Amino acid sequence: MSKYLIAFILLGHGFIISAQSFGTFSSDPAQITNPSWLDWWPTTLGRSWLLVALNLEDSLLEKIFGLLWLVSGICFIGAALSVVGLLVPHSCGRLLTLFGSSSSLLMLLFYLHPFFLLGILINVGVISTRFWDKLTLFR
Q1: Nearest one of 50, 46, 48, 133 to 97, comparing CA atoms
Q2: Are 29 and 23 in contact (CB under 8 A)?
Q3: In Å, what is the CA distance from 131 to each residue of 55, 90, 136?
Q4: DSSP string of the chain?
Q5: pLDDT digits (tens, 9 = 90+) for 51-100
């Protein structure tokens, strides 16, 4: 039962991370405004504070960031399939989750928004569980 719950979390997170890429590939991205209680935040959801600060919106770098969102999401989806033993070998699961969560965490920091807190926590949790059995500190 627990492997299906883990696969469900990885799959859901993978679809959400992949969906982030659509805003960067769109020629006319819709601006999502922050709610009134979040007016103090410098950027709106889906906009990178880094690209705004460097004035690199609608640049090749933004498209590369979009591709990294997509690859990160696909890695999570592949990891979910690996957990339940469908299409992706179980031996690839660790590598897929490590790459997916580390690159996704990087992107979430570049596109930092208070709404991304749950995604950041999931990525940190995935990274820590992937390394937990490698830690020799508590042995």
Answers
A1: 133
A2: yes
A3: 37, 17, 10
A4: -HHHHHHHHHHHHHHHHHHHHHHHH-SSPPPBPPPGGGTTSSS-BT--HHHHHTT-TTSHHHHHHHHHHHHHHHHHHHHHHHHHTSSS-GGGHHHHHHHHHHHHHHHHHHT--GGGHHHHHHHHHHHHHHHHTT--TT-
A5: 878 887 778 888 888 888 899 999 989 988 988 888 888 777 788 888 88
Place of tokens 């490590």: 98
**Cα distances (Å, whole numbers) of residue 87 to 3, 52, 80, 90:** 16, 40, 10, 9
Sign for the CA dihedral angle at 105, 109, 113, 117 comes to: positive
> Who contacts 104 (Cβ-Cβ below 8 Å, separation ≥6)?
13, 17, 69, 72, 73, 76, 119, 123
Beta-carbon contacts of 81 under 8 Å, excluding residues fewer than 6 positions away, are 7, 87, 88
d(CA 104, CA 19): 12
41 residue type, one letter: W
